[in-house]
Amino acid sequence: MTQPFHFGSATRPVFGIRHDAAPARDAVLACAPLLQEALRSHRALWALGEALAAQGVSTLRFDWYGSGDSGGAGGDMAFEGMLDDLGAAIAQCPMRPRLLALRSASLPVLAHAVASTRPVRVVLWDPLLSGGEVVAGWRRQHEQQLHEVGRYHGAAPPAGEDELLGFEVAPALLQALASLELEDARLPPGSTLVLATWQASPALERFAVRQQEAGVVVDWLRLDPEEQPRWEDPHVFEHQVFPRRGVARLAQHVADVG
User: Minimal CA–CA distance to 221: which of 255, 250, 241?
Assistant: First the structure.
């Protein structure tokens, strides 16, 4: 059963959707990526929540403040605020949840997790570890959409200073994200980490080794590379991404590892 609701504070309302399991033997907090990828992955995260709930894992999805159906405008999204949103969302879970991050959501989730004073359980799905590369990729995609893919018959409209990929984005958020380089970050000893990826980059392989050296249990889920979404292809920029088999395999894996 899905249950939409708001949580947080009166001045910072955050919209969430529960995928309830009855009874629940575990919990997952599923964190959406940022900007256009949040729209493209919406159906995949919904299907993941439903699949997990069917296997006894209650799942909570939410929109970062300043995005989706949460309060605030795009320019109100700030990195420290995202960490606050994570804390508020964790408090809404029926038990201490496994934190699941897709793509750019790995940046705030890892920042939150590495600051923990006790072991955490994290699932990184096709994670991005370099905030500098993420922001540079957004800017590159923005230019491609304006000038390279034939979106406009005439001259492309001028972009606002705070506009990126059709979203209002505060420069301070981009600066904070661009400063994050998390390949060398380490989760607390005793943590568990699931890495679900279609193709593991050398940086991600090194990241996994560093976690193991720090006393973290690392578990890989290798998804079918032929099903990898074309995240960076400017010609399918607005296409919805729903890798059905990958979602089903990830849900089963997370439910099985407990």
Answer: 250
Contact 225, 199 (CB under 8 A): yes
Q: How confident is the model at residue 189 (pLDDT cuts 50, 70, 90)?
A: very high
Task: Provide the residue ranges of all domains of the chain, joining segments of one domain with +.
Answer: 2-130+183-257
Specify whether the CB–CB gap between 116 and 190 falls below 8 A: no
Residues 6 or more apart whose Cβ sits within 8 Å of residue 168: 73, 74, 75, 160, 162
CA dist., res. 56 & res. 94, Å (int): 12
At the topology level, CATH places domain 2-130+183-257 in Rossmann fold (3.40.50)
d(CA 42, CA 62): 11
State mean pLDDT over 61-69.
96
pLDDT of residue 156: 74
Distance CA 196, CA 98 (A): 14
